[in-house]
Amino acid sequence: LALKGSNYAGLLERHRIHTKNVEHVVDSLRNERIEVRLVKRREYNEETVRWADAVISAGGDGTMLLAASKVFDKFKPVIGVNTDPERSEGHLCLPVRYTHSFPEALQKLYRGEFRWQWRQRIRLYLEGTGINTTPVDLHEQQLSQEQHSRAHINERFQDQKSDISGPHLLPVRALNEVFIGESLSSRENFKSCKPSFKFSLHRASYYEISVDDGPWEKQKSSGLNVCTGTGSKAWSYNINKVAHQAIEEILKIAKKHGGLNMPLNTELVQKVTNDYNESLLYSPEEPKMFFSVREPIVNRVFSSNRQRGFSSKVCVRSRCWDACMVVDGGTSFEFNDGAIASILIDTEDSLCTVLLEE
Amino acid sequence: LALKGSNYAGLLERHRIHTKNVEHVVDSLRNERIEVRLVKRREYNEETVRWADAVISAGGDGTMLLAASKVFDKFKPVIGVNTDPERSEGHLCLPVRYTHSFPEALQKLYRGEFRWQWRQRIRLYLEGTGINTTPVDLHEQQLSQEQHSRAHINERFQDQKSDISGPHLLPVRALNEVFIGESLSSRENFKSCKPSFKFSLHRASYYEISVDDGPWEKQKSSGLNVCTGTGSKAWSYNINKVAHQAIEEILKIAKKHGGLNMPLNTELVQKVTNDYNESLLYSPEEPKMFFSVREPIVNRVFSSNRQRGFSSKVCVRSRCWDACMVVDGGTSFEFNDGAIASILIDTEDSLCTVLLEE
C-alpha cells in the first residue's frame, strides 16, 4: 500500500477507530444482558439474521446496505451505527453522537422514546428470453470485470430456470436504488462479432422503458436509475442536482427574454437552487419510486420525453450488449437483449428501522 | 449473434451499405486519377499517413476519430465521409448527401469552393511518481477490463521512463475530449488491501483540480471531462445539457419566489432550454477547452465551486485507485494516485479539415 502511495497510516488509524467503536456498542449491549453475535461481512448470512431479534450494522452507509440486504422480514429492526464518521455521511445510521454513547440510544429504545420507521424498498421481476436470475454478489467476490462477466456466464449454464419465461421475482430488495447500464466489458469470445461496438470506459446503454404501464420509449443514455425515498439522497441526488452556477445561467437567460422582474442576485439563485435540489428528495417511507435517465442521448432516433419522474412501476426491455441491473451497488444481474425487468415497490418489502426522539 | 437475439440481418445490411458507399468514394477518386490506398482499421498507421497527401475516413464519427488519431501534421487534411448515416450523426463528416455524390465534393475542392477548418485539439503532459506513459489502444486490443488493467501493468514494467519525473508529453491529441475517471476494475493482487473500496459499476473518482493555474480543489465525482469545441457537441453535451422538464421546474420555482413576470408558457421554457443548451457548444476552431465535472459529490469534505467552465489549462492530481485518462474513447493512460496531468491546447496540434461551400 505504501509503495502505491496510499496513506497506510491513515487506513490503520481508521481501522483502530472503527474497532474501538464496535467494542463500545458490543459492550453497551452485553452490559444490558443482551446476547450479541458479532459477525464480519463474510459470516453474515440469513441464518444469523433468523437467529437475531434485531440487527445492528457497525460501519458506514455501505455496511448498512449490506446488513439490510439479508433482511426480508419487515418486523426485524435493522439499526445502523456509524463507526467511521470521518468518511461516511451516515445517512442510514443513527446520529453520530450515539456512536460514542450507545447506552443513551439503548435507554431511548427502552423508554419508547423513538418511533418505528419503515424504509420502502424496490422489488424486481425478470422475464424474457435467455435471462439469468442468479445474483452476483459484488462485495464478497471482489471480481475483476472479466471474472464478473464469467461468473454470470457460468451461473447461466447451471440455471435451468432461465428457460421458463414467466416473470421471476429476484431474491433482492433495493434499499437505495436499482441501476441499469452497460457493464463496460467486451467479451473475448464475441470479439469478431462486434464491429460496431467501441470498447471504452463509457458505452451508451440502449433500452426501452415504460413508466406506469405507459407507451414504450426507446432510450440511449449512460444508464437508468430507479430509487426509493432512501435512495433519493444517494446516487440519484448526485445525478439530478443542479449547480448554483447552472441555475444562475438559466435565470440570466430567462431574464434576457424579459422573464425576470426581480434583480438576479445571489440570494434568488441560492433559493431557487436549494428549492430545486430539495425537490429531488422525499421520505423513505413513501411507497413511490423516482426514476432518472443519466445523460440521455437525444438525436434523430432516440427521444427522451420524460427524463425523470415519480412512478409506481417501471418496465425496462434491454437492448444492451453486456449490461447489468445493479442493486445498491452490491448485487448485479445480467440484463441483456431479450430481458425484461419490472420494477416496483411492495410495502411488504419495507425495512424496519428506528428514529430516536431528539 | 442470432442466438443472442441480435439483429444479424440488420448488421449485414448495414455492412452492405457501408461497403457500397466506400466503393463509391474510391471509384470517384480513381476516376480523377487520384492514387488511393484503401486500408482497414488494423492496417492504418503512421507510415500510411506519411505516404498520403490527405486522409479520408469512411465510416461514422468514430472512424473519423480514429483517422485523426494518427495525424499530427496540421497541414495534412483529414476528411470524413459518413458511410453509415442511419446510425451515425456524422458531426465530424461531410454532409450526408456527399456520401452518394462524392464527385460533387471533389468538384468543389477543385474549384476552391470550400474553406480550410482547423479543429483544435488537446495535448496532455504527465508527471509525478510511478507514472506510466504507455498508451493502451482500446480499439485494436478490444480488451476485457481485466486485460486492460494487466496491459497497463505489463507496459509499466517495461517503461524505464516512468522513473524520470519531468512532464512527459503524451503521444496523442484529443479531437473530442479527455475523460478522467475510475476504471471500475478491482485488481486481484490488491484484493486484500482494499477494505474500503466497494467494487461496483459506479465508483466515485477522487482527484484534485486546478483551473488556469488557480488554487487546487479536492473533488469527488463520476469523472472529469475536458473537451474541445469539436467535443462540445459530443459527450460533454450529453453531460451538461438540461432537459426542458428541468428548466420548466426551475422557472416554476423562480416564479414562486416572485421572480417571473412573464407567463410561464412552453414557449418561454423552450427558448430558455434552447439558449442554455446552445451555450454549451462553441466553435471547433476556438483554442479553448471546456471542463465539466460529472455528478460532483458535495458533502462535508468535498466542495465543487466551479463545476464547469472554459479554460486554457487544467491540471489534475490523481487520488484514484485505478483510474484512467481516456482520449476520444479510444486510447487510455493509467492515472493513479501520484500522477499529475496538465491539459491544454496548442494550436500547432490542430487538425486540418474542409468546410464545403453550400
Automatic annotation (TrEMBL), chains A, B:
<dbReference type="GO" id="GO:0003951">
    <property type="term" value="F:NAD+ kinase activity"/>
</dbReference>
<dbReference type="InterPro" id="IPR017438">
    <property type="entry name" value="ATP-NAD_kinase_N"/>
</dbReference>
<keyword id="KW-0521">NADP</keyword>
<keyword id="KW-0808">Transferase</keyword>
<protein>
    <recommendedName>
        <fullName>NAD(+) kinase</fullName>
        <ecNumber>2.7.1.23</ecNumber>
    </recommendedName>
</protein>
<dbReference type="Pfam" id="PF01513">
    <property type="entry name" value="NAD_kinase"/>
</dbReference>
<comment type="similarity">
    <text>Belongs to the NAD kinase family.</text>
</comment>
<dbReference type="GO" id="GO:0005739">
    <property type="term" value="C:mitochondrion"/>
</dbReference>
<dbReference type="InterPro" id="IPR012355">
    <property type="entry name" value="NADK2_mit"/>
</dbReference>
<dbReference type="GO" id="GO:0006741">
    <property type="term" value="P:NADP+ biosynthetic process"/>
</dbReference>
<dbReference type="InterPro" id="IPR016064">
    <property type="entry name" value="NAD/diacylglycerol_kinase_sf"/>
</dbReference>
<keyword id="KW-0418">Kinase</keyword>
<keyword id="KW-0520">NAD</keyword>
<dbReference type="GO" id="GO:0019674">
    <property type="term" value="P:NAD+ metabolic process"/>
</dbReference>
<dbReference type="InterPro" id="IPR017437">
    <property type="entry name" value="ATP-NAD_kinase_PpnK-typ_C"/>
</dbReference>
<dbReference type="InterPro" id="IPR002504">
    <property type="entry name" value="NADK"/>
</dbReference>
